[in-house]
Amino acid sequence: MIAARALDGIPEIRAGDDLGALLRGRVADGDVLVVAHKAVSKAEGRVVALAGVVPGERARAIAAEQGRDDARHVQVVLDETAELMRAERGVLICRTRHGFVCANAGVDASNAEPGTLVLLPEDPDASARRLRAALGVRAGVVVADSFGRAWRHGQADVAIGAAGLAPLDDWRGRHDPHGRELKATWIAVADQAAAAADLARTKDSREPAVVVTGLERFVTDGDGPGARALIRPPEEDLFR
To answer: What was the pLDDT predicted at 137?
Structure first.
């Protein structure tokens, strides 16, 4: 049985806070700990104050074209972007330096202090590895964020960082019950753990950490390849 429970009693995270210390003792061997990226980003100081941002010409032009109220916000998005893939209806679809394709390069004002923006962690896989080491148990760790999906409404949490968890379960080459070879079945374990965890909390609950049980078979001794293994390279991107 797979179960997910949000951890209560976690205070508002600020720069320099020790997430590992806050969560140590609440995660057991075989568990998967899913942490909202904003808690990780805040602890790592990945927060930008808009008062110190000076928008450039490109940011001002995009803000005017897209009806964005604050060109400074656009500038922060551009600073986190490796490639601006599309700008339409006020949304910037970006490929981040990490390789993620997402809205606004993951830059977000929700759950942030007024006048600030929260960025994605500099290296989410490294963040997950550090947190796993601090827990002191054989557990998996996932750093999660909400992404939109092509052709579907709504958002779902996905893994942007992972450690101690097999991020993918490859069934290609196996056979179904009728003997047909599976050609494309490649289960995104880390993404589905992130999505399950998101259902165990509400967006306004201030519960950034969720423990998922029942995934012991995917928990690994080593840190593993991380969530980077989930990123489809540009040459395989059929939407470009």
So the answer is: 98
CA distance 225 to 240: 26
What digits encode the pLDDT tens for the residues 14-30?
Answer: 999 999 999 999 999 99
Domains 1-44+122-235 and 47-119 share a fold: no
| Sequence-ordered list of residues with C-beta below 8 angstroms from that of 112, at least 6 positions apart, any chain | 38, 47, 118
pLDDT at residue 92, as a whole number: 95
Q: How many CA atoms lie within 13 A of 31 on its CB side?
A: 24
CATH topology of domain 47-119: CofE-like fold (3.90.1660)
- pLDDT tier at 111 (50, 70, 90 boundaries)? confident
Query: What would the pLDDT profile of 150-165 be if each residue is shown by its tens digit?
Result: 889 999 999 999 999 9
List beta partners, residue 49.
Answer: 116
Nearest to 86 by CA among 62, 119, 64: 62
Q: How far apart are CA 118 and CA 111, in angstroms?
A: 8
Q: Is the pLDDT of residue 202 over 90?
A: no
| Interior/surface letters 124-139, b for 16+ CB within 10 angstroms, e for the rest | bbbbbbbbbeebebbb
Domain ranges of the chain: 1-44+122-235, 47-119
Cβ distance 182 to 221 under 8 Å? no
CA distance 73 to 164: 35
Which homologous superfamily is 1-44+122-235 in? CofE-like (3.30.1330.100)
Helix-strand-coil split of the chain, %, nearest 5: 30, 30, 40
